Amino acid sequence: MNPGTTVSPATVSPGTTAGPGEGSPADGRGSRWRRLRWPAFVVTGMVLAAVVSAALLPETNRGSLDPRSAEPDGSRAVAQVLRGRGVKVDVVQRSTDAVDGATRRTTIVVVSPSLLGPVQLQRLSRSSADLVLVEPDLVVLRELAPAVTPLGSTDASRVEDPACADPDATAAGPVTGGGQLYARAAGAPPGTTFTGCYPGRRFGTAGKSSDRYSMVRVADDGRRVTVLGQRQLLQNEFVEVDGNAALALRTLGAHPELRWYLPDPTELGETAEVTVGDLLPPWVRWATFQLGVVALLAMLWRGRRLGGVVAEPLPVVVRSAETAEGRARLYRTGRARGHAASILRTASTRRLAARLGVPSEASPSDVAHLAAEAAGADPGRVAQLLLGAPPRDDAALVTLSTALDDLERAVAEPGGATPRYGDAAKDPEHRPDPEGGR
After folding, report:
1. Residue stretches of the chain with pLDDT short of 70
2. Cα 61 from Cα 80, distance rounded (Å)
3. Which terminal residue of the chain, N or C, has fewer Cβ atoms less than 10 Å from its own Cβ?
4. What is the pLDDT of residue 108?
5. What sign results for the dihedral spanned by CA atoms 431, 433, 434, 438?
């Protein structure tokens, strides 16, 4: 450029800018954000709305026979009707809350009583409130209702008539009376009244039996304990079937206060044995089972598949003697003298049986007896040679092999010289005379 030359302004074509180009990273990020910001706002708003709704809605999905649960196996319907009739329903999870302040005008219904420990059972036994036990086991009955004992189970869908004089059962009429069955215990305490309703039959028995019931009531000193063997009476799904609702309401609503006791396994502490399965939710067991099935199917799917055996010509010809020597070296390396001796004896026994025409169903001892007669040898020594103990060392194994060979030759050449296998049969460790020949 010469001095004094005037530089004209740069000419910029229409539609271009002096900033970053159209393909620059800054322009790409800006355009991507403009495209995605509205979908991002929508998704974020939906997530927030779902979280707020879940937090504001009441929790209705709980465990089985939970009076707060609206699930088919819950008991919210029975609890709501009882509250509508003026019964105070309190849900408790600790034995202290269940028995504190309970009087004769209080009913305590115990769900899953098998989760109770000795301390919890003692607290309930000392309470003056009426008890309703849902499907208790023998341990619970011995503490809370010693006049009752479990006696099998029956179809849970059976509809039974009361067949008793209990006013609540008579008013309710037929109900779903299957499930667990109970009877009067042999050593029932004196002065205890026993009333059994809804008789059933155990699985595998014909006809009905009047001494097994799905509902039992015992009374002692003014306190009443009701044993329900059918949990479906309290479930939302079956509460409207037949007289289920009437029996549940009359049983649980006999007093103005009802305490619904859902045992908490963590209360047991060191006073009872609680397994890990009791502390886990019910779905964990099925989830673990399904994962195991999936893992097994995955192993079968990804496992190595072996086809049929394909004959393939060897690249070189291997002499049979080399194969036998190689196997012998493997036996020697592994000190498998017993296995090698067993193979030698088995092969020799088969050859002797074929040579002597012994039937296939004959035993090895029969072959040894016939071989001794053919060779003119002592049967006891021949049996010891073919069926004796394994050799203790390699030298004894060689001696055994030589004696077996001598026996086969003696059988093949009857009337010949006495074979030299006799000493080896008597003593498997016998060493042949190195000066002697065959």
Report:
1. 1-32, 53-62, 156, 177-178, 201-210, 269-279, 304-305, 414-438
2. 15
3. N
4. 94
5. negative
Q: CB–CB of 405/349 below 8 Å? A: no
* Gap between the Cα atoms of 429 and 398, Å rounded: 9
- What pLDDT is stored for residue 273 in this prediction? 54
**SS3 call for 227:** strand
CA atoms of 379 and 370, how far apart (whole Å): 8
Pairing of strands 175-176, 159-160: antiparallel
Q: In DSSP terms, which residues pair with 215 in a beta bridge?
A: 197, 228
Identify whether the C-beta of residue 214 lies closer than 8 Å to the C-beta of residue 178: yes
- Looking at residue 5, what is its pLDDT? 42
Find the largest Cα–Cα distance for the chain: 140
- What is the number of alpha carbons within 13 Å of residue 48 lying toward its C-beta? 6
Measured distance CA(64)–CA(244) in Å, rounded: 17
Length of the chain (residues): 438
Give the list of residues 6+ apart from residue 248 with CB closer than 8 angstroms, or none: 78, 233, 234, 239
pLDDT tens by residue, 3-45:
444 434 333 334 343 444 444 444 555 666 777 777 777 788 8
Alpha helices in 376-412 (DSSP H): 379-387, 394-412
pLDDT at 429: 44
As a whole number of angstroms, the distance between CA 416 and CA 207 comes to 84
- The Cα–Cα gap between 426 and 420 comes to 11
- 366 CA to centre of own chain: 51
pLDDT (0 to 100) of residue 304 = 67
Distance CA 114, CA 63 (A): 16
- pLDDT for res 302: 78
* Two structure tokens written together for 16: 């271009």
Q: 């060191």: which residue's tokens?
A: 270
Q: 83 exposed, middle or buried (CB, 10 Å; 0-12, 13-18, 19+)?
A: middle
Rounded CA separation 423/382 (Å): 10
